[in-house]
Amino acid sequence: MYEKNCHTVMDSPCGPLTLVATDGVLSGLYMDLQRYRPADELFGVPDPEPFPEVIRQLDEYFAGGRTDFDLPIHLGGTQFQRSVWTALCEIPYGETVTYGQLAEQLGRPTASRAVGLANGKNPISVIVPCHRVIGSTGDLTGYGGGIERKRFLLDFESGALVLS
Question: 145: pLDDT confidence band, cut at 50, 70 and 90?
């Protein structure tokens, strides 16, 4: 039986990733020093049991062998935030969209700032690919894990960066 919340930390090419599960289902994937990262004490007890499949799929992603994830996830947040996070999962690997395009896709063409705020509060980075959203001019704007990590993930997905 799972604790309500538990977590483990895995190494990745973009630094340590804290994986959080709620009732055994992935509910968080946080980078160190990530903006909007909850306090560590909210992650629950250390317990690697719920995470082998998550770790396997992340390892495959970083090895270049996986372009999408097939995992049960639990997304908290408001209905609007969840709609944004769900739409993020529809952005194909290696492609980007603007905040405005995402707002239009959601039927809220004037809500690009709200989309940006929801994007920044995405609790399951990498797997819910908020790094694939860019500014209207093509600039890399606001990424909770830091612009350097956003550039790293986009370069990796475009093939401009090969990990060994």
Answer: confident
